[in-house]
Amino acid sequence: MIPGGSVTFLRNHALILAATLLLMVAAPLPNAASDGHPIFGVDYYEFGVNQTIAHDDSAFTQGLAIHEGRMYESTGMYGQSELREIDMETGEVLRSISLNESEFGEGLAVVGDELIQLTWKAGVAHRYSIETFEEVGNYTYEGEGWGLCSDGGELLYMSNGTSTLTLRNSTDFTVVGELNVTLDGEPLDRLNELECVGGGMIYANVWYDDSIYIISRDSGAVWDVIDCSALIPEEAEPNHVLNGIAFMPGHNTTLYITGKYWPVMYEGGMREVAEDPVEWQEPLDDDEVAGWLIFLIGLIAAALTYLLWGKGFDSLTKSRGVHNPPDGTVYSEGEE
Ligand SMILES: [Ca+2]
Hints:
Helix content is 16%, strand content 38%. It has 336 residues and is α+β, with helices and mostly antiparallel strands.
């Protein structure tokens, strides 16, 4: 006869098994080290197009930014450089102002209610009222100005064609630091248009490159790469490269991208590299993931309860000639 203690033994093991399974399900996926850096190196993705939007093919795109549902673009080339507002659904130019002929428009960022536009080698960063496009002041800088993005707070990140980004105070444009950008430990040169994104990342174009590089603002290391080579328009000349990244604030998975003189702009996002093209779908947000996780844990807990304490446990012990509780078992005080 199996003593009553065996039931306790089985029950304890069932508890351990259940707890282990719950911990396995609830534990964060082990895809990042404790400092947040990926364990397995750089991951490569492709760009899934959600919608294709027209883009003025006379625009030598150098900067793209979205603020409060409106899109702004900076265009380059001497004599053609402009600051524009773009209709995000039709690609139509809603308003624009021209830069001085000696200025070549470059990176563009929103700071408060102003737009800041760089001018490549002219060393001037124009400050415009976002409402009126009137210039309300300017900053000056040393060296070349390529890309620019704002973290939405105190910092601006600025590229100059090298692998080093300059950090600037967003209220007075003074240099407050720099960030050396690396890909697999090597400097990533020719950084161009930038987009600061939630989660402490910067999305960057690289001149003469068909990919978007996702850079940690903490370390400067590239974590992920989005291959956009499939999106280059057939008619694009070699220097009409991918350039222009804008995110919908609050929707970090929604990305707008275009290129220099491209007739199209794409809205979509990064996706796993697929053998067969599939439509890009917006990933689940944190709340949805948490909801599914709670549902899954509940399902497993319910199944285990049924299996081990209910009919399943009963039949398990009965199959061994044991009733649950065993026949004749008398629970007395002190029995554990
Ligand atoms: Ca941008």
